[in-house]
Amino acid sequence: MATPHINAEMGDFADTVLMPGDPLRAKYIADTYLENVRQVNDVRNMFGYTGTYKGREISVMGHGMGIPSVSIYAKELITDYGVKSLIRVGSCGAVRDDVNVRDVVIGMGASTDSKVNRMRFNDHDFAAIADFELTQHAVAAAKAKNVPVKVGNIFSADLFYNPQTEMAEMLKRYGIVGVEMEAAGLYGVAAEFGARAMTICTVSDHILKGDSLSSADRQTTFDDMMLIALDTVLRDDAARA
């Protein structure tokens, strides 16, 4: 049954969906890593695909930019299509001295300047956290591939161009491992509707040092992260079998 934002049919999505922000990135993931791929969504060009990875059915779909966008797609995937696990695969900025470009960051928790989780939590503070088992398997997958990984609290910002220039130093002081725009909303939706969620990002730039990756380097680090994310799904299946 189609929703206002997804025109797939029930059963078109696997129980686990990998979610990059860019719908063209979703197409790249499907074309590069999945077999027997079929497109299941094209509303607003927010492409969604389902295929298999090493025999395991997995879906991938874009979620757009920002908490409002990811919240729409995550909610409908969970409540209308029965998706059980959502893994955001994206990029982030760094503020800490020990986090560098090319590192992989896993958001164990997600702070935010958005009010969305207070709205859903009766104006109280909600601790937006990732699913522990998915996080544990992602860390193991990264270590197995010898990929540097930092695990901790990330910050989901409502504004990409933030006029509060002192924010970066404050985030560094509080030990934030990465700055992005979606995880806190994704974790809130998953908690509200009984699903599991995790965010894994590559560090594409360092906000305070001024370091950034070229487009070619961004692709290489994204591919490293994707192999970790896919291995996470397989490790999670094995642990839950």
Automatic annotation (TrEMBL):
One GO cellular component term: cytosol
Biological processes, Gene Ontology terms: purine nucleoside catabolic process
Active-site residue numbers: D205 (proton donor)
Catalytic activity: a purine D-ribonucleoside + phosphate = a purine nucleobase + alpha-D-ribose 1-phosphate; a purine 2'-deoxy-D-ribonucleoside + phosphate = a purine nucleobase + 2-deoxy-alpha-D-ribose 1-phosphate; uridine + phosphate = alpha-D-ribose 1-phosphate + uracil
Record bears the keyword Transferase: yes
Top-level taxon of the source organism: Bacteria
Residues the record lists as binding phosphate: G21, R25, R44, R88, V89, G90, S91
Binding site for a purine D-ribonucleoside: H5, E180, M181, E182, S204, D205
Keyword field: Glycosyltransferase, Transferase
Xref: InterPro entries: DeoD-type (IPR004402), Nucleoside_phosphorylase_CS (IPR018016), Nucleoside_phosphorylase_d (IPR000845), Nucleoside_phosphorylase_sf (IPR035994)
Its EC number(s): 2.4.2.1
Gene Ontology terms for molecular function: purine-nucleoside phosphorylase activity; uridine phosphorylase activity
Residues marked Important for catalytic activity (site): R218
Annotated Nucleoside phosphorylase domain residues: 17-217
Keyword Flavoprotein belongs to the record: no
NCBIfam families the UniProt entry points to: deoD, PRK05819.1, PRK13374.1
Entry similarity comment: Belongs to the PNP/UDP phosphorylase family.
Function: Catalyzes the reversible phosphorolytic breakdown of the N-glycosidic bond in the beta-(deoxy)ribonucleoside molecules, with the formation of the corresponding free purine bases and pentose-1-phosphate.
Self-association and partners: Homohexamer; trimer of homodimers.
Name used for this protein in its record: Purine nucleoside phosphorylase DeoD-type
Organism from which the protein derives: Vreelandella sulfidaeris
